[in-house]
Each structure stands twice: as C-alpha cells, then as structure tokens.
C-alpha cells in the first residue's frame, strides 16, 4: 500500500445507492485501495449481482468478491419477499402505512449479517473502514438503515481489542433523489444498475424499490435509463 493511502471495503449490491457509494468512496473520499463485496443471499434474481460485477470493473476496484450466503434464503423465506420462495413482492401502492414501517421487503437482520461479514473481511485485509449504502427512504423504512443502527453497530465493533473496524453510511441522512443527483455528478452509468425486486426482463415499476427509484429520478430532474414494464413518466 502506498504511503498515506486509506483503504476501504464497500458493500456493493449493484443497485443505485451502493453504486453511487462505490464511486463516491473512490472519487470524492479518495479511498485506495477499495475492496468491493457483493452477496448472493438467495435473492430472486442475479441482475443486481451482474450490475455489481460491471460497476466494480468500471470503477477499477482492487478486488471484487461475490460471497455466497445463499443459505439465508431457506432460513428467512417465511419472513421476507426478497428471497427465492419467499412471500409475494408487493406493490408500494398496496402497502398500508402500518406495514411500511417494516414492509414484507425487509430481510431479517440482512444488513447486520452482511456488515459482520464485511467487517471480518476488512479486519483480515488490514482495512479499518467499511461503507454501505443505507439511505433515508421516502415511503418506507428499515431499522438497519438508520443512524441509530450504525452508531450502535460501531459500539459493538469498537470492542475489538486489536484495530476495530468502523462502519460508515454516508447517505444515511440523504433522500434517494440526493444520491441520484450525486451519481449524476459523478458520471455513474445508471443503466448498469438494477433495483427491481422481481427480476423480470424489465423493471416492474410498481414494487417499493421501483416506485422509490422512479420518484427519485423525477425529483432529480432526470429520466431513469433502465427499461420498465410501463413507460415511466418523464420528469
């Protein structure tokens, strides 16, 4: 490692937020070398992971690993819509307000599990910073994408008696439209990102993450470049 370089690990799903984060960590924060970690947790499709591979190559990360934790699918499928064999993926409009606090698209403890693996990898590689793309959703939310979660997780990691790893979530107070705008400023190729939970040939446009993504692009004054089942409204 060159003198004065600060290495980092970035959790890269291949979605819009984590992709913007990867470019932000490399270009705005100047971290080098960067290790990108993606996870197969038995999600319904491989489209995000395909995008993660492309983005890791485009960004020029030092190492990109796709880690198999697919056992989580069988373990968690009764409780989530995001894994193979799980609940049906809902449309955002069909989710009552009470369910949006912890919607069917929540995967139990996913971020804690993936960040634990990321922290273990970072510690092994001599890296002290792990970044993930939590952001403040507009219509629904997850407890493991909050400032409180990040703060308390770091309290636990600080118990390490060697060199503690610290987790960072630079977008945790930002709306998705702000991350999209940042990505546009960084020149991110959003056509090589994927967010839809259903994994069809085109994005469905109605599941919670599609609805949020489309709204974010509109708020950022841009057209989402990925294909949708129904033509999205122009900004």
Give a brief outline of the structure.
By secondary structure, the protein is α/β, with parallel strands linked by helices. The protein is 37% helix and 10% strand.
Can you put this structure into words, describing what you see?
The protein is an alpha/beta fold. It has a single domain, classed as Rossmann fold (3-Layer(aba) Sandwich), CATH 3.40.50. Helix content is 37%, strand content 10%. The chain contains 8 helices and 5 strands. It has helices at residues 16-28, 47-59, 71-76, 97-100, 110-125, 147-157, 176-186, 208-219, and strands spanning 8-11, 34-40, 63-68, 129-131, 166-168. It has a 5-stranded parallel β-sheet, with helices on both faces. Helix 1 crosses helix 7 and helix 7 (176-186) packs across helix 8 (208-219). The longest helix has 16 residues, at 110-125. The radius of gyration is 17 Å and the shape is globular. It starts with 7 loop residues before the first strand and ends in a 16-residue tail after the last helix.
Keywords:
235 residues; alpha/beta; Rossmann fold; 5 strands; globular
Whole-angstrom Rg:
17 Å
Q: Structural class, judged by helices and strands?
A: alpha/beta
Approximate strand percentage: 5-15%
How would you name the CATH homologous superfamily? HUPs
Number of strands: 5
Report the biggest beta sheet as strand number plus sense, adding barrel if it closes: 5 strands, parallel
SSE order: EHEHEHHHEHEHH
Q: Outline, from the CA principal axes? A: globular
CATH topology: Rossmann fold
Mind telling me the CATH class? Alpha Beta
User: What distance separates the N and C termini?
Assistant: 45 Å
> In the residues, how many domains can be counted?
1
Helix count?
A: 8
CATH architecture classification? 3-Layer(aba) Sandwich
Relative helix content:
25-40%
Q: Uncertain segments of ≥5 residues (pLDDT<50)?
A: none
Q: What integer is the average pLDDT?
A: 92
Strand order of the largest sheet: 3-2-1-4-5
